[in-house]
Write a structure and sequence with these properties.
With about 80 residues, this protein is of the alpha+beta class. Helices cover about 50% and strands about 20% of the residues. The chain has a four-stranded antiparallel β-sheet with strand order 1-2-3-4, with no helix packed on it.
């Protein structure tokens, strides 16, 4: 049985999931766009809050991991902030 793991990096018998940026960057750009619209129509406080909230997808993107150890039959994962 030939199995390929296209979203993983193999280091010996340990597989580490590659970082995927798509949804996190889309969420950040969407929140920043909404912040710009709020600032433009006269709601600067909401715009600042949206800018601070736009950091959450970026932090989540760099803190997520999934590691599969084939020899020990264990895995470690962390999703979200």
């Amino acid at each position: 049985m030939n199995t390929t793991f296209e979203y993983f990096i193999q280091e010996g018998n340990v597989y580490k999931m590659k970082t995927r940026y798509g949804y996190s960057l889309f969420g950040m750009i969407l929140l920043l766009f909404c912040a710009y619209i709020c600032y433009d129509i006269g709601y600067p406080v909401i715009a600042v809050l949206l800018c601070m909230l736009s950091l959450a997808p970026v932090i989540s993107m760099f803190s997520d991991y999934l590691i599969i150890d084939v020899n020990n039959k264990k895995y470690r994962q962390k999703w979200g902030c």
